[in-house]
Amino acid sequence: MTRILLLEDDIGTATEITLELVANGYAVTHRLLVSEGLAAAQDEPIDLLIVDRQVPDGDGLELIAELRRIGRRTPALVLSALGSLDDRVRGLRAGGDDYLPKPFALVELIARVEALLRRPNETRDTRLIAGPLDLDLLAGVATRAGRALELLPRELKLLDYLVRRPGRIVTRSMLLQDVWGYTFEPNSNVVDVHIGRLRRKVDADGEPQLIRNVRGQGYIFDVPG
After folding, report:
1. CA 198 remoteness from chain centre
2. pTM of the model
C-alpha cells in the first residue's frame, strides 16, 4: 500500500485530508511538527510527502530541504496559505514537486497526489556511476573519465534522468514532464537545445558517444560496454 506522510498541525484539516486519502486507498502517517516528520520519514518507508508550511516548530519546507540534503528524493506536495508567486517559487526551490495553496478542494489534492505518484519511481541514489561517467548529485558535480563536466543545474538533471534509463528511448514529452515539470508541450525546441549543449559537454571529440538522438523518437543513453 502506498504510504503518505502528512505534516499538518491543524487537526481539523489533517483529519479531512487523512480520511480522504484513506478512502482512496492510501496509508497515512500524520505528524504535527517538522522534527516529528523528519523522524518518521527516516524511520518508515514513505512514498509521498504532503507538507504544510506553517507548523509550530518551523517551516515545513525545512523537512523537504533536509531530506533532499541527505539524498531522499521522495515526491513532496507543499500545502500553504502562503500562496503568492514568491511563496510558490520558494517551495519548489526548496525541493517541493508541487504546491497547492489553501484553501483547496480535496478532489484537487487527490488529483495532485495521483499525478506525483505517476512520475517515474527512481532510486534514491545520489551517486551514479555509469561506465566513465560519475555523477555526485548532492555536490552537483559530474565527471567523465576524470574530466570535469561543467554542467548547469538543468543539464545535470537531464543527465541524471538519462543515466537512470540506460538503453531506453526517452521522448521529448517525458523530458518536458519529468525534468521541466510541464503538463503541456510548449511551442519551442527547448529540449533539443539543452540536449545539444549536454552532448557537447559529455561527448568530447574522440570519445565514444554516450547520448544519441533517435530520429523521430527522442534520445537514448548508451550503456558503456
Report:
1. 20
2. 0.55
